[in-house]
Amino acid sequence: xxxRTAINVLSAVILAVPALAAERKPxxxxxxxxxxxxxxxxxxxxxxxxxxxxxxxxxxxxxxxxEDATGRFLLHLDPGQNPRVGDIIEITGHVxxxxxxxxxAWSKTLAVVGHTNATVFAxxxxxxxxxxxxxxxxxxxxxxxxxxxRDEVDPGWFILILRDGTASIPxxxxxxxxxxxxxxxxxxxxxxxxxxxxxxxxxxxxxTGLRILVCNPKDILVExxxxxxxxxxxxxxxxxxxxxxxxxxxxxxxxxxxxxxWRGTRxxxxxxxxxxxxxxxxxxxxxxxxGASVEATGNAETDLLRINLSQARLRLLxxxxxxxxxxxxxxxxxxxxxxxxxxxxxxxxxRSLNGQAYGRIVRVCGQVASHPQPGxxxxxxDIRCGDTLLPVDVGNCPDMLADAPLGATVxxxxxxxxxxxxxxxxxxxxxxxGFVLVLNDARxxxxxxxxxxxxxxxxxxxxxLLLAVLAVAGVWVVLLRRTLAQRGRELEAEVIARVxxxxxxxxxxxxxxxxxxxxxxxxTGVALELQTAGRRAQEPAAMREHLVRAERSLAACREELxxxxxxxxxxxxxxxxxxxxxxxxxxxxxxxxxxxxRLAVPRERLTEHTTHALLRILRELTTNAVRHxxxxxxxxxxxxxxxxxLISVRDDGCGFDPSTAxxxxxxxxxxxxxxxxxxxxxxxxxxxxxxGAGTRATVTLNMPNEEPA
Length: 709
Description:
Blueprint: H1 2-23, H2 30-39, H3 41-44, E1 48-60, E2 63-68, E3 71-76, E4 87-96, E5 104-115, E6 122-123, E7 137-150, E8 157-164, E9 167-174, H4 182-186, E10 189-198, E11 211-214, E12 220-227, H5 243-248, E13 251-262, E14 266-270, E15 276-281, E16 293-302, E17 307-316, E18 343-345, E19 351-353, E20 361-370, E21 381-385, E22 388-393, E23 409-420, E24 432-438, E25 445-449, H6 456-535, H7 540-569, H8 578-586, E26 594-599, H9 608-627, E27 633-641, E28 644-651, H10 670-680, E29 684-689, E30 695-702
Parallel strand pairs: 3-5, 6-7, 9-11, 15-17, 22-24, 26-27
Antiparallel strand pairs: 1-2, 1-4, 2-3, 4-5, 7-8, 7-10, 8-9, 10-11, 10-12, 13-14, 13-16, 14-15, 16-17, 18-19, 20-21, 20-23, 21-22, 23-24, 23-25, 27-28, 28-30, 29-30
């Protein structure tokens, strides 16, 4: 069986060697390398490659775009390699997995074999930059910068959001130290740039989509007709149309009056024909005052309820003469709504938001349930009105929070706005994530009633005091328990020391009894045999017989002394499993024989004295079976029945006739010693054997509840 297993393992190894060699075969083209990286980057780690191609673009000092007839990828050069763009090279290297980058291709050897001056930057419209085929593609493209800012995580980079119609792509521009005002100069301009499309990018951010990397800001040019500052755009088309057609409008403008502003970036406008439109402002755009006339320009989007503008810029317009300037939400028409008007009751008892409440004034009277958390964007003041918790945005008048303590009854008027997602091809049914009432002015708020003295804060203070008292009491209890535990350990140590002393005395007594009962008696018999042999010196045959008996007795003494010494060093008594204790006791005496144990006896049922006697009995029976019976297998079984321990030792040796077995008078003390041990437990020893049929010994022991003295 072992030979067959070894042959099978060797065959598997022989079959696996060609597969492993194939897996580590050098990659021979850019297409093979890209396939390895895209399909399973983990298996591609340390994969070698040997390629010939052209360096078509340079990103940094040691990073080039490598291209051959099958594709292209970003190549990282080892220090000391200084090729130029346009060089035709032969390289060898491997794929590495560095912790600060994704899996990348690194060169090991590089040889320049030629040069070409062909233009490699492809003229591509923004909408065509999609898919894996654009990886490491040098491109020249143009578009409108709808957002520009310095990266907060990687300050050495600027991020541009470039849009052309419905297509948009992020652009990472490396700051070479000369473009602090890059974001200001390029925002809302139409630009033309040259860069490399990459799916992986340097720095802290791990962007998994395609973006354009521009290493030199000089590769960005502002188009002459692109200086519209994001304002010059056709008006929004509000006619009913498909969501994709709304987005396809691109950058549009609208004029209207500011109804409210919230979250520092959102403005709700009302046009002259009473159409509502939400404008999400670009970063840094200043919020206008409520009631101001503005022109907003941004990207047309929709939440399926109305048209919105994203990445919007605002321009203040002069107000027509004679128009009143509303300063408070309470002066606006149509009539204000109540909190109940915010919801529609369904037949099944559930409620849904009333879409007609969008942009309407809502008057509320309720209790302040919670304050907005400092520093949390979008946090609101919660007002409990009956069973409804209404979120209120107080960003336009934050000082009013001091006049609205928790539990106070307040009256306020706010503009209801919905928090909605915008439609995307991957999000065909944008959700309404919630609603909020926006306060435009501190005059829209009034404190109707101060909170009662017994506030939640005072309740928390009282509970805190009680908890402190409980904590002190708990500490006192813990210290008391530690003191008691320390005293208990000291008493335990004293008891253990006393028990250990008693145990040592008991062991010395037991050893003295063992030596007296076994070795001392045997030595007395040896002395008697030697005296008898001396008296019968004239009879050689009789003298020899007595000397043989003396020799056997001495051998028995030696064996018994060895067993006593082994018992003193034996740790089998510490085993929790009786089967393991028996195996550890018998294995030194088995030789080539096999031991099989099946003892259904819980170790905790046996006292130390009983266990010691049992192991001595089993050792003697096993030694006899191996030494005299030439047994190849010894089986030990046992159980507990009615307070008595039943043990069976069976072997497949040559056997013997128990009726004619030599005994003490012949110098054989084994079975007699076992019987003496068994009798101390008021037990029985039964031996069943026959020549050629093996031997079976059965031992029955009473199980005392305590160690005998």
